[in-house]
Amino acid sequence: MRILSGREVRKRIFEEIKGGLEGREFGVMRIGDDPGSRYYLSGIRKNAEKLGVRLDVFEREKAAWEEIENKIEEWKRRNIPVLILQPVPGISPHEIYKIIPPELDVEGLHPWNMGLLLRGEAGIFPPTPQAVLEILSFYEIETKGKEVVIVGRSSVVGRPLSMMLLHKGTWDATVTVAHSRTRNLFEVTRRGDVVVVAAGSPMLLKREGVKEGACVIDVGINEVSGKVCGDVDFEDVKEKAGAITPVPGGVGSVTSILIFKNLLKIHEGIHGK
Ligand code: NAP
To answer: What is the CATH number of domain 23-104?
Structure first.
């Protein structure tokens, strides 16, 4: 069984973008106490420091809609690219993305950017599904004509990933998306040559849900008894899987650098190359 370290992939992307972002500004908002978003922000801070990016972080336990709106308006006036860490308690991402212009949307979640993704055109795409694809590509895991099962249909991970994997001429996968209403989940996941779990449910995937030799990508970031763990029961699954990403050190490590790759694309768009 191969461990697919995200750190190796991260290093390669870091080398690709370093030097391009010195002194650039980046607005990041985190509200509430979700462990995943806290973990995500700590990765962003580390990368920003290494890349010389000037972070403007708006972090609160609670915030009224007016405060959120005012901060986003300020970033818009200053032409600063924006990332809103999810979830924002009590507010749907769709409401927030109504007030962020698509050209400042680092996460590719604005309906315009989502539309480009759906049409298979170039644009700014969500970094987490991109991270899954970067890992598959780095470790030369074939998806052409293969069965890929995704657990989770969120607009941040599962849904955009399914669109990317369907892309003709590149990933060409046969994609199944499972969710909380899927019956006999493990029967479905056992079909996967590749299984991607993005459910936010600690240790959800067990060995009986994995085909012998399958590649298992764990997107989940959860906190259990003060420790970070994924959506895959790593110890249970590792001997049956052919390859598996660890948590931490897997998808999350790649996501946090891909945010900066998106940031670079946006700055090149705003200020020219
Ligand atoms: P989300 O919006 O809560 O969506 C979770 C999805 O999983 C939903 O579609 C849900 O189904 C499905 N689901 C939940 N429990 C399930 C179960 N027991 N069986 C089958 N499906 C189930 O979460 P998200 O934002 O996509 O994030 C998912 C996980 O990835 C979280 O742990 C999050 O912290 C992590 N994450 C990691 C990164 C990274 O870079 N590694 C980035 C973003 C998020 P329904 O639609 O039916 O409710």
So the answer is: 3.40.50.10860
| Centre of ligand 1 from the C-alpha of residue 22, in Å | 34
Q: Give the single-character DSSP code of 104.
A: G
Distance 159 CA to ligand 1 centre (A): 11
- Name 1's Cβ contacts closer than 8 Å, sequence gap at least 6: 238, 239, 241, 242, 243, 244
User: Of 268 and 235, which is predicted with more confidence?
Assistant: 235
Indicate if 127-252 has the same CATH topology as 23-104.
yes
41-64 pLDDT, tens digit each:
998 999 999 999 999 999 999 999
The CATH fold assigned to 127-252 is: Rossmann fold (3.40.50)
Q: Which of 5, 94, 157 to mutate to test the pocket of ligand 1 (most atoms within 8 A of CB)?
A: 157
d(CA 180, CA 85): 23
Strand (E) or helix (H) holding 247: none
The overall average pLDDT reported for the chain is: 95
- Expressed in angstroms and rounded, the spacing between residue 157 Cα and the centre of ligand 1 is 8
| Residue of the CA atom closest to atom 6 of ligand 1 | 152
- 210-222 pLDDT, tens per residue? 999 999 999 999 9
Omega before residue 81 within 30° of 0, cis: no
What are the sequence ranges of the domains in the chain? 23-104, 127-252
Q: Which residue has 């993005």 as its token pair?
A: 198
pLDDT per residue over 188-214, tens digit each? 999 999 999 999 999 999 999 999 999
Report pLDDT digits (tens) over 95-108.
898 899 999 999 99
User: What residues line ligand 1, using a CB cutoff of 6 Å?
Assistant: 36, 86, 128, 131, 151-154, 156-158, 178-182, 185, 198-201, 204, 219-222, 251-252, 255
